[in-house]
Amino acid sequence: MITEFRARSRLRQIQLCLGGAVSVVLVALEGLNAPYPPVALATTVSGMLCLAALVVPHRLFVRYALVATAVSCALTLVETGLPRRPENTPGLVELSVLLWLITRAVRRCSPLTATLLPAAPALAAVLLPLRIAERSENLNSAVGVIVACVPFMVVLGLCLRLYDALRAREREALLQTQRLEHARELHDFVAHHVTAIVAQTKAARFTAAAGHTQSPEDLDQMLAHIERAGSQALGSMRAMVSSLRDPAAPAATSPTGGLAGLKALIRDFSAAGPTAELTLDPRLTDRPLPPEITTAVHRVVQESLTNVRKHAAGAGRVEVRVTLCPGDPEQLEVSVADDGRGGAEAGGGAWNGGGYGLVGLTERIERAGGRFTTGPRDGGGWHVLAVLPLDSV
């Protein structure tokens, strides 16, 4: 309860404090209505205990609720035997709080406790009118109204319990979506650059192990590629951290420049790996595309090139094609094909738990309404194909 109170706005906190202060004052005034000072004190204490049970932390709620209802029932039974009793009010604030205790018990407690505990405040509320001195015909009416209010408070508690469950489920679904999105972003960017560092380092070690002497220029160029890939990985990590620290800020890891950003990606890949060629449909050059489409295209090409580095042994050429589907200008086709020898292992490993890249791509493409397939190509190598709809563009 304290955490929930602190989470509210300042205005709401002031309103709750004022409401609590007014309730305490009303409980004290209703206690003064009793004819005897000890009874007035007992009435005030009983009302305060009920208020306390309504606002205590959840771990103390059952204990306080049972004590408050026991004191209320005991005070009612004692007052029924007194020669003088209150003439106008038995404690309306206490009555209202007892009814709200029923709602809180149903809403917050475990199923078993929520079934048994409401009976205690319900009994105390039904007995409360017996504190009045004159038992007129209105007494039966008051008891009837209270009895009718009990199931209403139970239903209210069930509705609030269902509402809390739905909110918790939506919150968990949102968190899961965010976790998946962050996992995809980390894999798409950081893993791509780290893979480039690993591939270039392996190439340098292989060259050294073979006894080939490298010129200072070649060595400097290779180290420059490694340095650039490391800097890009660090920049991607910083962008992800910035996005996580400020969710309202736009994701700094999203590719910019639309499909034109693929040229830089192909150029960087070719500088430290097999030769990659990009074919970009001229009809897409000036056509505005939504960010989710350009991001999906960028991720497909990036992940495919990363897998070529990892798995396509002996690959000498990679073909990247981003075109409109033949016969259907409202479908965008992204194709990445290599001529390596490790395609089957790459695909199988990714799909069978060796990696999450293809799984993340499938999720991303299907979320955009497209389809994603991978498989060996005729003549050797591996082929990745993604088809994205452009109906909404």
- Uncertain regions spanning at least 5 consecutive residues: 343-354
Elements, N to C (H/E): HHHHHHHHHHEHEEHHEE
Structural class: alpha+beta
Strand content: 5-15%
Shape: elongated
Mean pLDDT: 79
Separation of termini?
48 Å
- List the total number of helices: 13
CATH superfamily of the domain at 258-393: Histidine kinase-like ATPase, C-terminal domain
Largest sheet: 5 strands, mixed
> In oligomeric terms, what are we looking at?
single chain
How many runs of DSSP E, i.e. beta strands?
A: 5
What would you say the CATH architecture of the domain at 258-393 is? 2-Layer Sandwich
CATH topology value of the domain at 258-393: Heat Shock Protein 90
CATH class designation of the domain at 258-393: Alpha Beta
Q: Strands across the major sheet, in which order? A: 1-2-3-5-4
Radius of gyration: 36 Å
Q: Level of helix content?
A: 55-70%
